[in-house]
Amino acid sequence: MTTTVERSETARPRAGDVAFTATGIKKHYPGVKALDGVDLEGYAGEVLAVCGANGAGKSTFAKLLAGVETPTEGEIRVAGFDHPVRNAAEAEQAGVLMMFQEPLIIDDFTVGENVWLYKLRQGRDIRPWANKVDSNSAETREVLGKVGLGGLRTNQLARDLGPGQRQMLSLSRAEVTNHQIMILDETTASTSEEHFNDILDLVKREREAGTHIMFVSHRLNEVFAMSDRIAVLRNGQLVDVLKTSETNPDEITTLMIGQALKAVERPAPVQTEGKQPLVSVRDLHGGTAAGVSFDVFPGEVVGLYGLVGSGRSSVGRTVTGQKKAVSGTILIRGEEVQLSSPGQALEKSVVYLTEDRRLEGFVKDFDNGENMSLVVLPKWSKGGVIDTTKEKSRVAELISEFQVKGGPKTYTRSLSGGNQQKVVIAKWLESDPDFVVLDEPTKGIDVGARANIYEIIHGVAARDKGVLVISSEAEELLSLCHRILVMRNGKVVDEFDPAEADTDDLIRTALTHQD
């Protein structure tokens, strides 16, 4: 039986002392070497960024440090703990706190109860009254304020929160737990730009307290804003560890993918004068969208930018039948349509790629071939019987075309985030839609995979299709789109030409525009 040990603040290493040492770390899965002999140290009072392409081993290393996974070979030692970390319970005793990309939130608990979740479980029962924690206390409200959630009621259910709010709620636990190492594994992927400053403030407090922060991320602008050192992994091996002040994004990208990354070129202008819009939306109400109007022309990539709660995802879901519109008009090639389900949208050649690929994008118990076939099975069937020869042949072509690592029989859930996203994109594009809505298409994806997905998006538009890209990353939309619409309070408040705008224009408009 494992006994929980409370670590005192005096057990923390001093700034600059070794916080953990990883020696000869190997992690093998059937047919895959996720990590192959990694030696790495982390120091107290620093931010160590861990970067690499999808499948490089970043998250695997983070899980090993947190005890979620066990090394095939090698060992990890945490300062002040008398033996190598072997499981999650020991890692917690050693003072390791891990924040996952998919936050651990209990939907049926209140916001306040979720703040204190790790404290509650120290009692005999996880129910809030078992440990006499006041989840509605002034302390709870203060903690929420520190992570940008001061506007939430502590007694509202967590199920009602958006992805960014859920992630920040998870991060609030750093304020109420005792730890000397904090791992942020793609935790900024679900948050929007306005919450990044809250994360920076949290990291600053942790660093000043002597915590070692390991930051696993694909977002190099955030890596350079936050970190002291950068460790780069490629194909399971540690390529280099550099001081952030002595390197640059181009060098890190080259180390990650083994070659210089070609810059994404902004698409050539599309001539729309005198043409009929492919999609016209007028005075659309649905979800948090409140009177949205816009057009998308054939060959156009239109961006939709806004902060959390602006209504951007509600627009994407409503115009594609994921949610039924309350009122308003949607026209496709001049014909008014009523889209009350994804099936009806697909019949009208309209598809939606969700922002939450793990929950809604693919079937976890299906392999790549089965997931890629889902939308187009009727096309490959006759009399209700699937032509498996045609299916297998086409799936093999899709895997090659979309550069998916893993064969038709590989379970999609076992792939890296970027490869999962390619499977989802391939699945929907195989239906040859005329209008594609992509909600946060590159969330949690490395720079190499991003460039690949950008090429796919531009390729769709080049075939005279219409594309709407919803993103919380202003810089992404500026490089990807022909036009950018900015939303605030459920409405489109301005439109920008990416050739004449910058990130500051988009962010200021999203924050301060007066209706």
From TrEMBL:
Record-level Gene Ontology MF annotations: ATP binding; ATP hydrolysis activity
Pfam family, one: ABC_tran
InterPro entries: AAA+_ATPase (IPR003593), ABC_carbohydrate_import_ATPase (IPR050107), ABC_transporter-like_ATP-bd (IPR003439), ABC_transporter-like_CS (IPR017871), P-loop_NTPase (IPR027417)
Database matches in PROSITE patterns: ABC_TRANSPORTER_1 (PS00211), ABC_TRANSPORTER_2 (PS50893)
Domain ABC transporter: from-to ranges: 13-260, 270-514
Superkingdom: Bacteria
This protein's UniProt keywords: ATP-binding, Nucleotide-binding, Repeat, Transport
CDD domains: ABC_Carb_Monos_I, ABC_Carb_Monos_II
PANTHER family per record: CARBOHYDRATE TRANSPORT ATP-BINDING PROTEIN MG119-RELATED, GALACTOFURANOSE TRANSPORTER ATP-BINDING PROTEIN YTFR
Protein name: Ribose transport system ATP-binding protein/inositol transport system ATP-binding protein
Organism: Microlunatus flavus
